[in-house]
Amino acid sequence: MLYLLPAYLSENSPVDYFAPTIKDIIMNVDHYFVENEKTARKVIKFFAPEKKQPELKLFLLDKYSETADLKEAQKLMKEGVDFGLLSEAGLPCIGDPGNIMVGWSHKNNIKVVPVNGPSSFVLALIASGFNGQQFSFNGYLAIEKYKKKKEIQHLENLVEKTGFTQIFMETPYRNNPLFDDLTRFLGPNTKLCIAANINDPETEFIRTKTINDWKKEKPELHKVPAVFLIGK
């Protein structure tokens, strides 16, 4: 089996936010696909501190990976070895390359088991007050200023024309420049939700305001995991 395991959104998330079955799976699975070994070991320790770390066999699966790079793991899976798949945060295969092994598993008759856990953009959506029946997740916006401006204004137009909520993210160290661009390129009455440090009991920040109001209160988002939403 290939277990799609959630990771915490914040290291301060209480472990009882998560299903007990996650610990049971981790205690019985030694092989994992991971984006980052250090992060994965911390997540595994969070859920199952009793798990012996030397027993873990971690296979790097990042945006540069191809199925051809994962032949050793694929051979083990065909032989019946169970694997877990861990994202950097939240659910795997959303905003990360985990779908590579999920697609391969379906083609090779290996059962894929999704396990309940937090998704940052879904939690941001339900806390935003925006349309939760019709929405689009756009991942990361362009880095180049001109292209980013066009994308931001395009998303605003989509909200106006369709009512669909538009959701996107940024690398945490570029959050503040993105906020500046949003307040510069969006109309004054356009509504923007910022959801940062989701699931952190102490520092979670979720606010929905017009651009006019955001200009009066600039949040500090540098190196803070955040989700941005434009909606009605």
TrEMBL record:
CDD domains associated with the record: RsmI_like
Swiss-Prot/TrEMBL keywords: Cytoplasm, Methyltransferase, rRNA processing, S-adenosyl-L-methionine, Transferase
GO molecular function: methyltransferase activity
Domain of life: Bacteria
GO annotation terms (biological process): methylation
One Pfam family named in its UniProt record: TP_methylase
Ranges where the Tetrapyrrole methylase domain occurs: 23-197
Cross-referenced PANTHER family: RIBOSOMAL RNA SMALL SUBUNIT METHYLTRANSFERASE I, SAM-DEPENDENT METHYLTRANSFERASE
Name of this protein: 16S rRNA (Cytidine1402-2'-O)-methyltransferase
Organism listed in the record: Epilithonimonas hungarica
